[in-house]
Design goal:
942 residues; alpha/beta; SH3 type barrels; Rossmann fold; 7-stranded parallel β-sheet; 30 helices; 42% helix
């Protein structure tokens, strides 16, 4: 390419100071001035001839050019006609020979190649070179990191959550059941897994299916925790796209919808099945009722999706831990090929229990006697070699984790129990006996159904005026002022009951309250929950129907009123779990007003004395309930029969103790060890903590924001307000036009909800970096240094190359070789130098042009020298990265193949994917490219 300073109408020139104007055309010129029109933007500029910041754009034979009509060609010849250039070449679209006058060149042309920009005076400030180098370097480290997708979540660093997310998120198409007990963070675990799968390109399309009441909470949690913006699908949204004859589910990558929406609409269910997802996430999976004879409609809806979608996450806090049909049904969704026979599953469960019993001493850090060693060798012969070093704690942990990997459902099921996790509050039960009103006595005497017995206020004859005579209402109105201003969550079984209690509070007490029930829209529920959460001007009490016991987190409250009691222990635990969660800062006070000599009094005593379900979590409660259900129902119908109730409580307490002992001694202990991450998560935690303490990101983003024109204001407390500045070089996706408050500190982000947690995972960081790296800014510059220790007039060429592998994202090439910078410095003698430049001043255009004219020949030779050196370094990097990729993937493939011999939970598809991945990445590495990204000439002028 060449440049000239003789102007003629029709010639094409570039602005050295406003490259965004595109390619300009000379429309007028006289002895003093020249006028240029820029068609791409519609602007025109008039310059004085002797110092016009313009560069003539000319192309040489072999260059590729594009016309205004959109076709392109490779130049084979050029001619000059009336001081304008005519290019000849072969069109790429049809192979025909074509001529293209420079007047018809594409207006949008911007020089992208560093050599072109350098030689055509398309120069930027020298700092942009440093910015590009640092951006490439930091991103390269980020994509290689083992904490990608985890470290940037707005969460406390809780070991078991991070361990499960890391274990599952690193798999290809994981299919697992997340079954931590209530309050241990299953939603957070799912969010981390989804984020890691998306960030590492293991998944690109995700469908989340939840109960209606949890749709908006999942939407908010995904955005708040991991910055993932899901689209909520309902019938109204889909109908809006029906006229376009398209599948609405194919229009978004991340979709969230309710189970009832898919279950009750065959068309939408079919469209969802055909949309092609990488991952399915289902919350509250215990609602998917199943039996061999009659699977529910909910179960069949999810089963059809699970058959088509390779990755599946099921979430439930109440799986059947003792091998019953409901637990089998969840596993059947995950792996129908393996879990196809219920009787065989029960037989396998028995084997797992034997194995757990055999290793029980190891779980207690005790030694195995000779008989126990022999038994373990019989049950797990592949572990024989490891049995010799059991005195070594590391060897012992390694053996236990190997047994979990190779036996049972440890690869499919992650179950943490509260008993093994610290950080939970104590529970205090407070009961308030109330006299049974005479009108209730008459109603209960005539009751024919269990609901009428448990909830006398819901009988048709009383439903309109029961709040005027029920002593529990009087108790509630007198109780609330005694704990003011503390927040109170009240849960009852019926939406009508919640509404009527709210009306009674409004009319008789004037206490600020909010109601939350299934008859409200999602937006209305969110407003109610937000009003309750407001610490100063919000409601003191939130009155919830039963849906308030699922999914919502109200741990900022410490008082829970159970206005009535549910029939099942699992539902009671879910109610208490709204407050009793990790993050709760005070003990939980559970208040139960009850009517004496009623079914509620019986239920209260059974829960308290038979299951101890108020003071402690009760994972065995549902199993006890199944065995004593008939006796319990009899006692509820005859609350005056104290002998029968005492017998029921005694039997229940015995059953509960026995079942808890079975859980503690059985397979559950191995599952708990597997899910807790003990002995495996510590390195991951240390890496995240070290990254949190690292100052590279705050310093880099401050520099980057400043460079692209984003205003930054230090607000104290490690918070900053950023907003678009008047000098922004381009719009920044994700930056609120009105400004946003950010922090780089996890502690601040988890304390202040409105503050954005900026990490290497955050999309704002990637958008800002992309804004730089996808632009031409910084690709060419000339600068001066003032170093008196170096010869005056000495100069160097800095060249930034980028080594990259082009491969489909799902192959995860970035895990082994992301775009990697290679920076070289060549001195005037053409030799590589290790000198670095901290502060480089920008050269003005006139001096820069003079320097280029003087140094053009030597600089071209320096560029060629740098290119050859970069190729050599690239080959070394490629060799190392290829070896690392093959070693890592082949090791994982061998491990899975060995595990599959003992554990059929290892799917063939997992192994086949890795085989394909190794072959495809090896081919991609063969075609890796080294591209020159930026050039900078540095001249010493002290």
């Amino acid at each position: 390419m060449t440049s000239a300073n003789d102007y003629a109408v029709g010639q094409r020139w570039l602005s050295n100071t406003e490259s965004e104007l595109g390619l300009g055309a000379i429309i007028n010129q006289d002895s003093r001035s020249v006028e240029v029109y820029f068609p791409a933007t519609g602007d025109s500029r008039k310059y004085t001839k002797h110092d016009a910041p313009l560069t003539r754009l000319t192309f040489a034979i072999g260059d590729e050019v594009k016309s205004q009509d959109g076709w392109s060609m490779t130049i084979t010849d050029t001619q000059i006609s009336h001081d304008a250039i005519i290019y000849f070449g072969t069109r790429h679209d049809n192979g025909e020979t074509q001529k293209l006058p420079e007047t018809l060149l594409d207006h949008q042309i911007r020089l992208n190649q560093p050599e072109q920009r350098l030689m055509n005076m398309q120069h930027d400030k020298p700092k942009w070179f440093d910015l590009r180098l640092r951006a490439f370097s930091y991103l390269s480290d980020y994509y290689r990191s083992s904490i990608i997708g985890l470290a940037g979540a707005r969460i406390e660093l809780i070991p078991h959550q991070l361990h499960i997310a890391s274990q599952v998120g690193n798999r290809n198409a994981p299919r697992v059941l997340l079954a931590d007990e209530v309050g241990l963070g299953k939603t957070i675990e799912a969010a981390l897994i989804i984020h890691q799968q998306l960030t590492t390109a293991r998944a690109q399309r995700v469908l989340i299916v939840v109960p209606d009441s949890l749709v908006h909470q999942w939407l908010v949690e995904m955005l708040r925790r991991v910055n993932l913006a899901f689209s909520v699908f309902d019938e109204e949204r889909c109908q809006a796209m029906d006229d376009e004859q398209i599948n609405p589910f194919e229009q978004e990558q991340l979709v969230l919808c309710s189970l009832s929406f898919l279950r009750d609409n065959e068309q939408r269910h079919t469209q969802a099945l055909e949309a092609g997802w990488d991952m399915l996430v289902v919350d509250e999976a215990h609602h998917l009722a199943w039996s061999i004879e009659s699977p529910s409609a909910d179960y069949q809806c999810i089963e059809a999706l699970a058959e088509k979608i390779s990755g599946v996450l099921l979430l439930t806090a109440t799986p059947d831990q003792l091998g019953h049909e409901s637990h089998f049904a969840r596993l059947r969704l995950l792996d129908p090929a393996r879990f196809h026979n219920y009787d065989r599953f029960l037989e396998e469960e028995g084997h797992y229990s034997e194995l757990a019993e055999a290793v029980a001493p190891l779980l207690e850090d005790a030694s195995l006697d000779e008989l126990q060693l022999q038994r373990l060798e019989q049950l797990a012969p592949e572990a024989t070699n490891e049995l010799e070093n059991l005195n070594d704690m590391d060897e012992r942990d390694a053996l236990l984790h190997k047994l979990i990997d190779r036996h049972g459902t440890g690869r499919l099921l992650f179950r943490n129990r509260r008993a093994g996790i610290s950080g939970f509050p104590n529970r205090e039960l407070h009961t308030y006996a109330q006299d049974l009103p005479e009108v209730y006595e008459d109603a209960l005497a005539s009751a024919t159904e269990l609901n009428e017995t448990l909830f006398p206020e819901r009988q048709p004859a009383l439903v309109d005026f029961w709040t005027e005579l029920d002593p529990r209402v009087e108790w509630l109105l007198s109780f609330l002022p005694t704990v003011k201003p503390e927040k109170v969550l009240l849960i009852c079984a019926s939406a009508v009951t919640a509404q009527q209690l709210g009306e009674a509070i409004r009319m008789r007490a004037g206490i600020r309250h909010s109601v939350f029930h299934e008859g409200m829209s999602i937006v209305e529920r969110d407003k109610a929950a937000h009003y309750f959460a407001d610490p100063e001007d919000g409601a003191q009490i939130l009155l919830c129907s039963e849906i308030g016991s699922e999914g919502r987190n109200f741990q900022f409250a410490h008082h829970l009123v159970l206005f009535d009691l549910p029939m099942t222990p699992d539902l009671l635990e879910q109610r208490i779990g709204r407050l009793d969660r990790i993050g709760q800062t005070q003990d939980i006070k559970i208040h139960v007003p009850y009517l004496q000599d009623s079914a509620q009094a019986v239920l209260l005593k059974w829960y308290d004395e038979g299951l101890n379900a108020f003071a402690k979590t009760c994972p065995t409660g549902s199993a006890v309930y199944e065995q004593v259900e008939d006796d319990l129902l009899g006692c509820l119908q005859m609350p005056e029969d104290s002998d029968s109730l005492n017998q029921l409580i005694e039997r229940s307490a015995t059953l509960n103790a026995d079942l808890k002992q079975q859980l503690d001694a059985g397979r559950d202990r191995l599952l708990e060890l597997n899910a807790s991450g003990h002995g495996k998560v510590e390195d991951l935690l240390d890496e995240i903590i070290a990254e949190d303490a690292n100052s590279n990101l705050p310093e880099f983003m401050s520099w980057l924001f400043d460079a692209i024109g984003v205003n930054q204001e230090d607000m104290g407390n490690n918070c900053f307000v950023i907003s678009p500045g008047e000098s922004m070089i381009n719009s920044l996706p994700g930056l609120d036009p009105d400004g946003m408050t950010i922090t780089f500190r996890r502690r601040v982000a988890t304390t202040l909800e409105h503050v954005h947690f900026i990490s290497w995972d955050h999309p704002l960081v990637h958008n800002a970096v992309d804004l730089i790296l996808t632009d031409t800014v910084g690709k060419a510059s000339i600068g001066f240094i003032g170093d008196r220790t170096l010869p005056k007039g000495a100069y160097w060429l800095e060249a930034l190359f980028v080594l990259s592998v082009n491969a489909p994202r799902h192959l995860q090439a970035d895990r082994f070789l992301p775009r990697t910078p290679i920076k070289l410095c060549i001195d005037a003698d053409g030799k590589e130098s290790d000198i670095t430049f901290d502060k480089t001043r920008r050269a003005n255009k006139k001096i820069g042009q003079q320097l280029l004219q003087a140094l053009k020949g030597p600089v071209n030779k320096q560029i060629e020298t740098a290119r050859n050196l970069a190729q050599k370094q690239a080959q070394t990097l490629l060799h190392t990265s290829r070896e690392h990729m093959q070693a890592a993937l082949n090791s994982e493939m061998t491990r899975l193949q060995e595990l599959q011999k003992q554990n059929p939970a290892i799917r063939d598809s997992e192994i086949d994917f890795i085989k394909t991945q190794v072959d495809a990445l090896s081919n991609a590495f063969d075609n890796a490219e080294v591209q020159l990204d930026a050039l900078r000439i540095v001249v010493n002028n002290p």
